[in-house]
Amino acid sequence: MPTAILEHETSADATRTASRFLRVVPLAFITYSLAFLDRNNFGYASNGMTESLKLTDNMTALLPAVFFIGYFLFQIPSANYASKHSVRWLVFWSLVAWGALSSLAGIIHSTGWLIVDRLLLGSVEGVVLPAMLVYLTRWFTKRERSRANSLLMLANPVTMTYASAASGFIIDYFDTHHRLHLKGWQWMFIIEGIPSIAWAGLWVMLAKDRPSQSAWLAPQEAEAVQRKLDAEQAEIPGVKNYWAAFADQRVIRLALMYIFFNAAGYAFMFWMPAIVKAQTGASAGKSGLLMAVPYLVASFTIVAVSWISDRTMQRKKYVWGSNLVGAIGYLLAALAGPQHFGMAFLALIVVGTCTYTPTSPQWAWMAEMLPRNVLAESMALVNSFGAVGGFLGVYFGGWLNRHFHSPGLTFLFCAMCLLLAAGLGLSVKQNPRTE
Description:
The chain has 20 helices and no strands. The protein has 435 residues and is mostly helical.
């Protein structure tokens, strides 16, 4: 846990800042990490799955992309339930469901049923980000929120760091040590779905929806946290209902920005393992280790940027600026080409960091724009648009790479998406400072 998180905790701290970070954030982090593991391991299975199931290029691109249709459909209903009822129980049942669906992908041989499985997986995993963002807004104040969000979002690069190595190892091992007539990619799905089901039991025992429900905060400490949160809400202009929030130009522009941001980000997460493997000729295990590098670097930059954002109480420039830097990274990777893979890979490390860096300031920014009665649904709307972007990025990124047998056009497509995201982020009106 970074020491910057603990800096405000003193012996006179009535809200027990450090204790809240140490007890609440790890629960959200592990939950979101497992969701990302079961979502993105498809990229490591794609080569083996294509060969085993004799998939066409179009079907290879469609299978991971259909996840985002289910993901899109349940964002706003799940955010509404989490806001009005219980994050704890919603996430419990989602963990059980997505762990089971992920493991099922390893034993399904029909492409039709695989499409159904991916669609359902997207539906239950669509619950997790809105629920986790609602969960953190109930526990952390404005000056703590970007750091809390960053530790949640840190689950993405950290997961991809260990998943890159673990997934490649599992595939290599079971391709050479055959068990039950299953391929390595099938064992990867089966094994990596199990931790989510096991974690569901721990989550429901340890997580609490609000400070007032926790046994480790004294009643006066829980009340102090709630008073701070209520005082911050009083500073935000009221919004009648979430339909009015959906019509806010800032929300609309952030939603459009998130389409293009996620298109580029998910194309990177899903197709870079296959691209790196094809360009280097390395085994799944070795290419997985290479792909761990961008995520390892991102694990540091996401915390650094969120810390600066909380210190300065500025969000906007870190959102649009990260998108711009990521676009430049994609352009450099396209220009370097496969004949200069080393240079292209350095550019992709930059891209990997920018895939995660702006998310923490962005969600903190939204929490400062909108009151709590509409915040959950508004964040879910933005994330729903991000699911549309995820579908476009995974489908078209995969189709371009498979059809033209070169990653150059995929990189240019992603660069254009991030340039559009940067422009839209820059156009969002800065929220008033209410320090």
